[in-house]
Write a structure and sequence with these properties.
Number of helices: 9
Largest sheet: none
Helix content: 55-70%
Radius of gyration: 25 Å
Number of strands: 0
Order of helices and strands: HHHHHHHHH
Length: 189
């Protein structure tokens, strides 16, 4: 039996995949990327050491065999509901929605090869202004007083994935602190 670095038996590819999925949801693309090196190492360890002339051909064959085994494992994980693109998208949106805008969330999901459902897209769009205001309020104490400060706050929100029209809306509206100051001030005639 193969042994790991510390003398414990090496985990199978399936055990590694299930352990990763137990820690958090993964997209198929992300899980494949994480496991491909382990699959290739298992195949290389199982095969005989190739001689110098056949090294390139054998490495390509090992990589192809590892990729095929890994794709079969991923298909099994999907069929048995261990791996779900929908669950991954929902968990990623849940984790990111309070800090990021729709542009950033969509971009992050597309890097994982996943898209948003129409319901999730609609829900995010409906709450985006409130989320942008909350992100802005956590970072800044009040409206920008100078053009430089305005630009700095706008860059911050843009970096968080909020669109320009929404940023203008957030920065134009007075903050709670500004409205509280006005309401506590003595009324003028």
């Amino acid at each position: 039996m193969d042994q790991g670095a510390r003398g414990a038996p090496a985990r199978s590819l399936k055990a590694r995949a299930i352990q990763l999925l137990a820690q958090r949801e993964h997209s198929r693309l992300e899980l494949r990327r994480k496991l491909l090196a382990h699959a290739a190492a298992e195949d290389a360890q199982a095969g005989e050491a190739p001689d110098e002339i056949e090294a390139d051909a054998s490495a390509a064959e090992l990589a192809t065999g590892a990729a095929e085994r890994l794709d079969a494992l991923l298909d099994w994980l999907v069929a048995n509901h261990y791996l779900s693109e929908q669950r991954f998208a929902e968990s990623r949106v849940q984790a990111r929605a309070s800090r990021f805008g729709n542009l950033r969330i969509r971009q992050e999901l597309s890097q994982h090869g996943v898209g948003l459902s129409a319901i999730a897209e609609s829900s995010l769009k409906d709450t985006e202004l409130a989320r942008a205001r909350a992100v802005w309020a956590r970072k800044f104490s009040g409206r920008p007083a100078t053009p430089a400060e305005h630009a700095r706050q706008a860059r911050f929100l843009a970096g968080r994935g909020f669109p320009g029209d929404l940023i203008r809306q957030v920065l134009r509206q007075p903050s709670r602190a500004d409205t509280d100051d006005e309401s506590t001030a003595a009324p003028s005639d």
